Amino acid sequence: MKVLGIETSCDETGVAVYDTDAGLRAHALYSQIALHAEYGGVVPELASRDHVRKLLPLIRQTLAEAGLGIEDLDGVAYTAGPGLVGALLVGAGVARALAWALEVPAIGVHHMEGHLLAPLLEDDPAGRPQPPFVALLVSGGHTQLIHVEAIGRYRLLGETLDDAAGEAFDKTAKLMGLPYPGGPQLAMLAERGRPQAFRFSRPMTDRPGLDFSFSGLKTQVLLAWRDSDQADRTRADVARGFEDAVVDTLAIKCGRALDAAGCDTLVVAGGVGANKRLRARLQAMAEQRGGRVAFPRPAFCTDNGAMIAFAGALRLQAGQHDDASVRVTPRWDMASLQPVASG
Ligand code: KG4
Ligand code: ZN
């Protein structure tokens, strides 16, 4: 089954074709980062308009790269939420219209389920991590530990009480004067920083529980940066101290979550999953425990169409689809999803 996936929930237009027999056939991404940079954040109306401009050309490009005609598609999957309502409606409208014209089923995918399943998307079905496992979702909007009892059955084990991990990266980068979007830039800077030059706390690791809090850490960095000489070398050292604190905190809680759920497999997804030090740290932890950790390739950690095509394909293949109305769900609890029958 060949499924077209469309992602337009925020500031990236992503398109891909996933084939349930042959795997990922092609994918393309257009990032609006430059468009929003001068405003220091995503401007929803500008995002919607840019999705309108870019989506159809990207669909044509992706199909051409896959060597497919539009009539070869057997289904369409699109991000139906959570996200910016106007941006979501662009993807949903195009997906629904295509499915209607081609007389194929279409399904609205939960954006975070897309992220969560991305670590599975490039394995062949036999080598894929099988539920139950624990997922760490770390993006600009979410920091969650989830017990994946089955595909589609998600139980929240812990989440952030304030800032998401990616948001903490972005805000910390901003307060040290790095350009938007700061997370990846801060991580690059941290590579040059000395470990232990600055030591920040590992929030909420001194007590039991699986929740996170990153806003206090950001304040600690702010104070340390203000009182420093603000030299380039210091900026790198502070970045390293901050990154180590976040990575350590995430790793400690992942270990606890695996214990709590009785699992030995961890999957990691979302933009912060692209962080090199986090990947190395979780890999080492998994090896030490005799378990396994799965990540998507870095390009599929951040928003993309491939994860939506894949998550949609699993559901369409199991016989699920939505009715023909164009509907999006800007706020959507993952626990309310339908499980996907395996087989
Ligand atoms: O999943 P994503 O693309 O968008 C959301 O749905 O939020 O994640 C974006 C987030 C941003 O906060 C960005 O700063 C962060 O992921 N991020 C990183 C890295 N690459 C992206 N954070 C730390 N290290 C990175 N290498
Ligand atoms: Zn995302």
Automatic annotation (TrEMBL):
<feature type="binding site">
    <location>
        <position position="111"/>
    </location>
    <ligand>
        <name>Fe cation</name>
    </ligand>
</feature>
<keyword id="KW-0408">Iron</keyword>
<protein>
    <recommendedName>
        <fullName>tRNA N6-adenosine threonylcarbamoyltransferase</fullName>
        <ecNumber>2.3.1.234</ecNumber>
    </recommendedName>
</protein>
<dbReference type="InterPro" id="IPR043129">
    <property type="entry name" value="ATPase_NBD"/>
</dbReference>
<feature type="binding site">
    <location>
        <position position="275"/>
    </location>
    <ligand>
        <name>substrate</name>
    </ligand>
</feature>
<feature type="binding site">
    <location>
        <begin position="137"/>
        <end position="141"/>
    </location>
    <ligand>
        <name>substrate</name>
    </ligand>
</feature>
<dbReference type="GO" id="GO:0002949">
    <property type="term" value="P:tRNA threonylcarbamoyladenosine modification"/>
</dbReference>
<feature type="binding site">
    <location>
        <position position="170"/>
    </location>
    <ligand>
        <name>substrate</name>
    </ligand>
</feature>
<dbReference type="Pfam" id="PF00814">
    <property type="entry name" value="TsaD"/>
</dbReference>
<feature type="domain" description="Gcp-like">
    <location>
        <begin position="25"/>
        <end position="310"/>
    </location>
</feature>
<keyword id="KW-0819">tRNA processing</keyword>
<feature type="binding site">
    <location>
        <position position="115"/>
    </location>
    <ligand>
        <name>Fe cation</name>
    </ligand>
</feature>
<dbReference type="InterPro" id="IPR000905">
    <property type="entry name" value="Gcp-like_dom"/>
</dbReference>
<dbReference type="InterPro" id="IPR022450">
    <property type="entry name" value="TsaD"/>
</dbReference>
<keyword id="KW-0808">Transferase</keyword>
<dbReference type="GO" id="GO:0061711">
    <property type="term" value="F:tRNA N(6)-L-threonylcarbamoyladenine synthase activity"/>
</dbReference>
<feature type="binding site">
    <location>
        <position position="303"/>
    </location>
    <ligand>
        <name>Fe cation</name>
    </ligand>
</feature>
<keyword id="KW-0012">Acyltransferase</keyword>
<keyword id="KW-0479">Metal-binding</keyword>
<comment type="function">
    <text>Required for the formation of a threonylcarbamoyl group on adenosine at position 37 (t(6)A37) in tRNAs that read codons beginning with adenine. Is involved in the transfer of the threonylcarbamoyl moiety of threonylcarbamoyl-AMP (TC-AMP) to the N6 group of A37, together with TsaE and TsaB. TsaD likely plays a direct catalytic role in this reaction.</text>
</comment>
<dbReference type="InterPro" id="IPR017861">
    <property type="entry name" value="KAE1/TsaD"/>
</dbReference>
<keyword id="KW-0963">Cytoplasm</keyword>
<dbReference type="GO" id="GO:0005737">
    <property type="term" value="C:cytoplasm"/>
</dbReference>
<comment type="similarity">
    <text>Belongs to the KAE1 / TsaD family.</text>
</comment>
<feature type="binding site">
    <location>
        <position position="183"/>
    </location>
    <ligand>
        <name>substrate</name>
    </ligand>
</feature>
<dbReference type="GO" id="GO:0005506">
    <property type="term" value="F:iron ion binding"/>
</dbReference>
